[in-house]
Amino acid sequence: MEESAVAPGTRRPGGRTARTRAAVRDAVITGLAEHGYPALTVEYVAEHSGVHKTTLYRRWGNLEGLIADALDLAGEDGWSPPDTGSLEEDLRALAHEVVASFTDPAAAAAPTAFVAAAFQSDRAADALRAFYTTRFARCETLVERAVERGEAPAGIDAGALVRAVSAPLFFRLFVTREPVDAALADQSAVAALAAARAGAFNAPGETAPAPEPPASA
Amino acid sequence: MEESAVAPGTRRPGGRTARTRAAVRDAVITGLAEHGYPALTVEYVAEHSGVHKTTLYRRWGNLEGLIADALDLAGEDGWSPPDTGSLEEDLRALAHEVVASFTDPAAAAAPTAFVAAAFQSDRAADALRAFYTTRFARCETLVERAVERGEAPAGIDAGALVRAVSAPLFFRLFVTREPVDAALADQSAVAALAAARAGAFNAPGETAPAPEPPASA
The pTM is what? Predict the structure, then answer.
């Protein structure tokens, strides 16, 4: 299969595929942010990525494939969760990251466009689910470290705890359409931690409260 | 100004406006659920409501006005929050209502369509914010009753508590695209309650924990 019309400056075989993919991802994100899912077309992505339309169809199948791959690539960003040495501070940092991302219009555009696209494309919804599954799996290491330090009980549902920190923020951003700020980030983190300490995220049958946090916390 | 082409069977002056409005609302919801915001047109609403297009433009201005009014009308449904006599049971019932609504495709269609439309229309976003502001203001009575019974501290941010119950469910439904079920409803309610009891929703400066719940709770 021949390689047609990749972006300028991407001639080396090793880097070409990755750079083409990144160029296509950037065009998909720009298009989603500017026009939304239903208005985005393969023609738009071809024009803005410099990758020929026939290449896009051959490699990505269709527009939904392009969106799904852009999300896959977004998930390969090497992001890792905060590691401050304290569960409370890690959860606060996580919440503040969400607020910082979504109160900066440039940073918010791509994730907002993906969340919106998922309402109208099952394949985008599947890709978004995969993205968040991976993202929250990484977050769970933060809880595992807290368990090792005795700040959370061993039976805790780490995924539920880290989702509980983000949920009140995303709920206001994308459902109730209310403002989010640093105070709300702190409240979300403190509430999730209090629930964790009370055993609310323990697996069924392990409803005993978490150990008291160390006196230094 | 003349009244043109209202729906059949809506001739009495008193009921006509209300019934026309309801017919238009139903057409907007059907259209949003079936086609999404960008594909919905005033023509579609006219055809499916039996209300003439010129009437729609005159009364509602444009498509965004139609969506906003459909949401306003949805907010006038007389819904009231659970009143079981126990804060924990009220919060559980609230969470189970959310799960029941969104796991029933027929019940989920309209609210899902409104949440989706808010991504693409500022006026729909404003209307959605107004809808949830009213809805959660009603929910706050549930917390006020709990404060009177001594189940929650007087300084509690009732709005934050009731949002905390719904947030993990909506977050999974519309952002992470993960399944929700009765167990997650219970976990959300229990976690929010534990956070409330720990004082996490108290106003700044009132961070003392809530009173211990009565022994019967």
Answer: 0.86
